[in-house]
């Protein structure tokens, strides 16, 4: 029988935060593309939105799990 592994609070919080950041980055990228294609914003503003998306995904790549148990 497989051993049941319990998530620690840090792991659970990190997973929730990572999920939120992934969705935020996706929405920022979609908003930048939509606004640029519709002509609502200039190319410079859309570029700033895509840079913000890259920053969000940079935070997603951080490892929120402080121990090396995996």
What does this structure look like?
Helix 1 runs antiparallel to helix 2 (43-60). Helices cover 69% and strands 0% of the residues. The model has no long low-confidence stretch (mean pLDDT 76). With 70 residues, the protein is mainly α. It is built from two helices and no strands.
Key phrases:
mainly alpha
Separation, N- and C-terminal Cα atoms: 20 Å
Helical segment tally?
Answer: 2
Order of helices and strands: HH
Principal-axes shape call: elongated
Spans of at least 5 consecutive residues with low confidence: none
Biggest sheet: strands, sense, closure? Answer: none
Overall average pLDDT: 76
- Find the structural class using helix and strand composition: mainly alpha
Share of residues in helices: 55-70%
Our estimate of the beta-strand percent is under 5%
- Secondary structure: number of strands: 0
- Over all CA atoms, what is the radius of gyration? 17 Å
List the helices and strands and how they pair.
Layout (H helix, E strand, L loop, with lengths): L8 H30 L4 H18 L10
Helix pairs in contact: 1-2
Short structural description:
By secondary structure, the protein is mainly alpha-helical. The chain is built from two helices and no strands.
């Amino acid at each position: 029988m497989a051993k049941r592994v319990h998530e620690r609070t840090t792991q659970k919080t990190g997973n929730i935060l990572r999920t939120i950041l992934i969705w935020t980055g996706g929405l920022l990228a979609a908003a930048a593309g939509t606004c640029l294609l519709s002509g609502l914003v200039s190319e410079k503003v859309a570029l700033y939105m895509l840079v913000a998306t890259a920053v969000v995904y940079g935070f997603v790549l951080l490892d929120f799990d402080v121990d090396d148990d995996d």
